[in-house]
Amino acid sequence: MNGTTQYGTGGTGGLRVVVVGATGNAGTSVVEALSGCPGVASVLGLARRIPDWRPEGTTWAAADIDPGGTDLVPLLTGADAVVHLAWKFQPTHDPVTTWRTNVLGGIRVFDAAAAAGVPALVHASSVGAYSPGPKASSVDESWPTHGWPQAAYCREKAYLERYLDAYEYRNPATRVVRMRPGFLFKRESASQQRRLFAGRLLPAQLVRPSLVPAVPDLPGLTFQALHTDDAATAYREAVVRPVRGAFNLAADPPLDAAGLAGILEARPLRLPLSPVRAALSAAWRLRLVPASPDLFDAVLRLPLMDCSRARDELGWSPRRTAVEAVREFLDGLRSQAGMDTAPLAA
User: Fold this and answer.
1) CB under 8 Å to 272, separation ≥6 — which residues?
2) Beta 138-139 vs 222-227: how paired, if at all?
3) What is the C-alpha to C-alpha distance for residues 4 and 160, in angstroms, rounded to an integer?
4) Which long-range contacts (CB under 8 A, 24 or more apart) does 140-147 make?
5) Is the C-alpha dihedral spanning 18, 33, 193, 223 positive or negative?
6) Where do the DSSP E strands lie in the chain?
7) pLDDT by residue (tens digit) across 85-126?
8) Does residue 91 have a cis bond before it (omega within 30 degrees)?
9) Which CA distances in Å does 89 have to 229, 259, 260, 283?
């Protein structure tokens, strides 16, 4: 961390923060970052299922953000900041279901924060909200956020960006922050991410150096990643500092086939895109893998991000490289790591 953090006060010795979606990959790290922060008096974690995990200074409440779900206004009333992280990645074969939770549920959180008079809203957007962009250079937060329209994940992230544009106009006194991280990895998220994206076609024990002979080298296969705990420190700073707007979050170096091959002690193998995409599409249609081929298409088109604003205004820099984050994640895959929360259960 660079610079000096100017912590706010919630009137009773610190801020009262509500984290929506507090038990997943990002949520658990954000809760830990906030619960250990001297400027935060209390954290209320909201989740569908209350976990046995009990970090110091954190209380829990069960909440369903879907339309017709829990009345969120009483839960958010009195908060100094709301961090919205809840997201449903599956089922990719039923985009109406993910739309209800991610878009309509997200809007319910935003509107409840406004009704409760919460002065700060920090939203988990994503690199996936960005329109296709360059791989040879990086873009700042002014790059268009229209997503890749074929992929439900990108459509939903982009739609919420548009909703927040109007939300800020209607609620000028609310400090709105949009965090746009690259792909988030940590050891404890390995079991969850395997279930969400790879399914049973990925034997966890085989993801180790010397057992993966080659990594497909595909056009456009360059992306950014970071450790989830490093992203969480940026969220914490967005809560306690008087900042607004969007922040790109990623660690160096950008990862490509050569970088992934180095991690796995394999070799990059140049392949044409069409047969790889066709195989993934067939596996998805047969429900052998849960990740949609449209999300694969989006990854190949995502721009690389310039993270200067987070460094300058949040005093943020990642402690781990992207390679270290992926290595830790792969170690978690092999050991079937998890946490004592429903989403991260091993």
Assistant:
1) none
2) unpaired
3) 32
4) 140/248, 140/305, 140/306, 140/308, 140/309, 141/180, 141/245, 141/246, 141/247, 141/248, 141/309, 143/303, 147/298
5) positive
6) 15-20, 40-47, 58-62, 81-84, 120-124, 138-139, 175-181, 183-185, 214-217, 222-227, 245-249, 251-256, 267-270, 304-305
7) 999 999 999 999 999 999 999 999 999 999 999 999 999 999
8) yes
9) 20, 26, 24, 17
Work out the number of other CB atoms within 10 angstroms of the CB of residue 40: 25
Q: By the 8 A CB rule, do 267 and 213 touch?
A: yes
What whole-number distance in Å separates Cα of residue 86 and Cα of residue 149? 21
Helix intervals (H) in 58-124: 73-76, 95-99, 105-115
Cα 278 versus chain centre, distance: 27
> In terms of Cα–Cα distance, which of 166, 180, 173, 73 is closest to 124?
180
pTM of structure: 0.93
User: Residue 337 pLDDT more than 80?
Assistant: yes
Q: Strand 214-217 relative to strand 175-181: parallel, antiparallel, unpaired?
A: unpaired
Work out whether strand 214-217 and strand 138-139 pair parallel, antiparallel, or are unpaired: unpaired
> Using CA of residue 114, residue 118, residue 120, residue 122, what is the dihedral sign?
negative
Tokens of 141: 């937060």
Query: What is the residue whose two structure tokens read 């596996």?
Result: 283
Tokens for 252, please give them: 């160096």
| pLDDT digits 0-9 by tens, 189-204 | 988 888 888 776 566 5
Residue 7 Cα to chain centre, angstroms: 24
pLDDT band at residue 210 under the 50/70/90 scheme: low
Bridge partners of 223? Answer: 255
